């Protein structure tokens, strides 16, 4: 049964770049590993080889940001490896002010083995273990980012980390089989059963999806968001396809907004409390102490209709700020140009973004690595 499932998974999902986009060399002076085929490499990037519990050795890269309080563990999409994602990862680290670890699945890039569903689960587990043991990153400060097929390993790890800070799903899939067929229930041989796992994720979840996605239908992202316990305002990019979402100005803008909101939250070991700081200080000492003792809201509390993350976040805003947010949304829908102008204006006061044309630069990177040829999970019935 397990072998059959693994074989089915390989036919459904995995298309590693051939040949890989990079090789690994060792710098004689520093003794550090580097990617030999990547231009403009940065000193704040560690290249690593990690052993998985399934016996494979995978390649990972860790981008260090000295001012970051959060770390993103990024599971990339299909037909890509971390050599192609190198500059996107380093730019996201700067623009989102986070540390970022990306890794190649078994059989991708210079990682050993062959790709399978279970191997990708072991791969992300090894990457997360490295964050904890080598860099001292706690799950309370970790955000899992899953793009397309990467939503599978991201959600598998998310349901096993009770104190995870947040999850980002980028063009995610409901399951492997549902990409090809409109099945109504989960079948035994299906892979990446995200539809069954998303209700088990206790932390805030952001979903990003293009409305014109020709590979993974927009309905996948929408349904996953509807099934979330802790919903954050989703980003539905009108006209967006499967591999071009980074080209939209709203992409980085919404991610930065989400990261900012997550940073303001108490760590998950404390009971979530999204009241403004002055209101929290006015609460009674008893309530405060009780909230600190709880690692998460109880099941009973959730069953009584715990408000979603997005709604609780909105409750922090004053009436005036809500009106401004609505006005901003209206402007975004009316004109892409108005968004560009407002974002550039905001960037002028943002020290970390100064002297950068963020979206154009990131967009050029997406185009340059050719990620838009991704055909993940889009196989014919005859091949299956």
TrEMBL record:
InterPro entries (alphabetical): AB_hydrolase_fold (IPR029058), Hydrolase_4 (IPR022742)
Compositional bias ranges of the Basic and acidic residues kind: 268-280, 290-356
Top-level taxon: Eukaryota
Positions of the Serine aminopeptidase S33 domain: 70-176
Stretches for region Disordered: 268-356
Coiled-coil annotated residue ranges, if any: none
Protein name: Serine aminopeptidase S33 domain-containing protein
Lineage, opening ranks: Eukaryota, Viridiplantae, Streptophyta, Embryophyta, Tracheophyta
């Amino acid at each position: 049964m397990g072998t059959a499932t693994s074989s089915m998974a390989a036919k459904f999902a995995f298309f590693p770049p051939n040949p890989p986009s990079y090789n690994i060399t060792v710098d004689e002076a520093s003794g550090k590993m580097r990617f030999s085929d990547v231009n403009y490499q940065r000193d704040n990037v560690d290249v690593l080889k990690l052993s998985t519990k399934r016996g494979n050795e995978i390649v990972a890269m860790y981008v260090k940001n000295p001012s970051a309080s959060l770390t993103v563990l990024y599971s990339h999409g299909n037909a890509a490896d971390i050599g192609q994602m190198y500059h996107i990862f380093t730019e996201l680290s700067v623009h989102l002010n986070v540390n970022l670890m990306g890794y190649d699945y078994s059989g991708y890039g210079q990682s050993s083995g062959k790709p399978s569903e279970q191997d990708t689960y072991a791969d992300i587990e090894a990457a997360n273990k490295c964050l904890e043991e080598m860099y001292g990153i706690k799950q309370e400060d970790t955000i899992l980012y899953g793009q397309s097929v990467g939503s599978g390993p991201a959600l598998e790890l998310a349901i096993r980390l009770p104190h995870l800070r947040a999850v980002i799903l980028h063009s995610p899939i409901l399951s492997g089989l549902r990409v090809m067929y409109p099945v109504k229930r989960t079948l035994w041989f299906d892979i990446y059963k995200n539809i069954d796992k998303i209700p088990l994720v206790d932390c805030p979840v952001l979903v990003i999806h293009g409305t014109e996605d020709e590979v993974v239908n927009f309905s996948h992202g929408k349904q996953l968001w509807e099934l979330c316990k802790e919903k954050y305002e989703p980003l539905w990019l009108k006209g967006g396809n499967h591999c071009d979402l980074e080209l939209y100005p709203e992409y980085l803008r919404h991610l930065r907004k989400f990261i900012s909101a997550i940073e303001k939250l108490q760590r998950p070991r404390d009971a979530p409390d999204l009241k403004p700081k002055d209101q929290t200080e006015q609460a009674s000492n008893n309530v405060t102490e009780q909230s600190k003792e709880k690692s998460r809201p109880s099941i009973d509390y959730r069953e009584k209709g715990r408000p979603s993350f997005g709604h609780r976040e909105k409750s922090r805003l004053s009436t005036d700020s809500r009106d401004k947010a609505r006005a901003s949304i209206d402007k975004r829908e009316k004109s892409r140009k108005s968004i560009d102008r407002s974002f550039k204006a905001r960037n002028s006061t943002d020290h970390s973004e100064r002297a950068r044309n963020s979206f154009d630069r990131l967009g050029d990177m997406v185009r340059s690595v050719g990620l838009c040829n991704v055909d993940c999970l889009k196989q014919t019935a005859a091949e299956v």
